[in-house]
TrEMBL record:
<dbReference type="InterPro" id="IPR042098">
    <property type="entry name" value="TauD-like_sf"/>
</dbReference>
<keyword id="KW-0560">Oxidoreductase</keyword>
<feature type="domain" description="TauD/TfdA-like">
    <location>
        <begin position="87"/>
        <end position="282"/>
    </location>
</feature>
<dbReference type="InterPro" id="IPR014503">
    <property type="entry name" value="Clavaminate_syn-like"/>
</dbReference>
<keyword id="KW-0408">Iron</keyword>
<feature type="region of interest" description="Disordered">
    <location>
        <begin position="295"/>
        <end position="315"/>
    </location>
</feature>
<dbReference type="Pfam" id="PF02668">
    <property type="entry name" value="TauD"/>
</dbReference>
<protein>
    <submittedName>
        <fullName>Clavaminate synthase family protein</fullName>
    </submittedName>
</protein>
<keyword id="KW-0479">Metal-binding</keyword>
<comment type="similarity">
    <text>Belongs to the clavaminate synthase family.</text>
</comment>
<dbReference type="InterPro" id="IPR003819">
    <property type="entry name" value="TauD/TfdA-like"/>
</dbReference>
């Protein structure tokens, strides 16, 4: 029913970006069926896989050479179905300054970005990070849909709840503030001084367990804080120990709880011939509580497109 509904939505003129305006065309029976599978991974593992949920969609042709050159018409129905599923999980949104403000991001290896800490990199390890850590309204869920993955390149996922951390490290990382800046996919859209001078904490406790906000390549640690640096290093190492590699196959969606698990990716060699790995990504807001101190953060002036209403609450 996903394929039929996506086709009907496309015929009606909808795209993933305007799905929220066409919600009346989504059958309630589909929302109900998806609500059964679309449960947030609020478990200690921090992720879940919706195996083959988009596998009925045809191969959309060659992998684009960058997000900029993706032909949105070729994946219009796949993107609509992905956005529909994301909208059952929660409230999907995009960032005005990321991938032209689109809801569905294309994550493909990109020439010139090989060694950067962004989704388009390849020959370096993409280090552990929680998505959009710099922002108080970052996604609670990160959805990665696999279009193509012929070389079985996985996403590494590590839950802070499975990290072997001492009480002393948890206490230090929960109280010592750091400054997290936007990553290089936001280049040119912010300037120094728009941040919140180092009030962000790496860990916090919630009723159902420990949560994390962690993006080492883009973080400034306070000067003269050797204990914090050491605790940070131990956090990274314990994520290495706790991490799992999840290699999606075409049609799979990997759902990552962005407050519980960090993600990363090992280096790989891109071919740039249209056969490379191709993921689609949607960011989703949930209902969960973050530290009150975050409410005062300015988020470097970054503007969201959405969040759009969840289909689940409509149904
Ligand atoms: O390529 C991957 O497996 C993950 C890339 C990533 O960090 C992201 O899309 O947010
Ligand atoms: Fe990421």
């Amino acid at each position: 029913m996903l394929l039929e509904t996506a086709s009907a939505l496309a015929v009606a003129g909808a795209t993933a970006d305007t799905l929220h305006l066409h919600a009346a065309l989504v059958p309630q029976s589909l929302v109900a069926a998806l609500s059964e599978v679309a449960r947030s991974p609020r478990s200690d593992s921090g992720y879940r896989v919706l195996k083959g949920i988009l596998s009925e969609f045809p191969d959309p042709g060659p992998t684009p050479s960058s997000w900029k050159s993706a032909d949105h018409e070729r994946t219009r129905e796949f993107d609509l179905a992905f956005a529909l599923i994301a909208s059952v999980f929660g409230k999907p949104f995009g960032w005005k300054s990321q991938q032209d403000g689109r809801l569905v991001h294309n994550i493909v290896p990109t020439q010139g970005q090989e060694t950067m800490q962004v989704g388009g990199s390849s020959t370096v390890r993409l280090e552990w990070h929680t998505e959009d850590s710099y922002h108080p309204d970052r996604p609670e869920l990160l959805l990665l849909a696999c279009v193509r993955n012929p070389d079985d390149i996985g996403t590494d996922i590590a839950s802070v709840r499975r990290a072997d951390l001492s009480e002393a490290d948890i206490a230090l990382l929960s109280t010592t503030p750091v400054l997290i800046e936007p990553d290089d996919s936001y280049a040119g859209s912010w300037s120094e001084g728009q941040g919140d001078e180092g009030k962000m904490t790496t860990l916090w406790q919630t009723e159902d367990g420990l949560c994390m906000r962690f993006d080492p390549p883009y973080t400034r640690l306070p000067e003269d804080a050797p204990e914090l640096c050491a605790a940070w290093r131990r956090l990274s190492e314990s994520l290495d120990q706790a991490g799992m590699t999840v290699a999606g196959q075409p049609g799979d969606i990997v759902v990552v709880d962005n407050d519980v698990a960090a993600h990363a990716r090992r280096p790989f060699q891109a071919r740039y011939d249209g056969t490379d790995r191709w993921l689609k990504r949607i960011l989703v807001r949930g209902e969960w509580k973050r530290p009150e101190a975050e409410l005062g953060e300015r988020g470097y002036g970054q503007v969201q497109i959405g969040p759009h209403p969840s289909l689940r609450s409509a149904g």
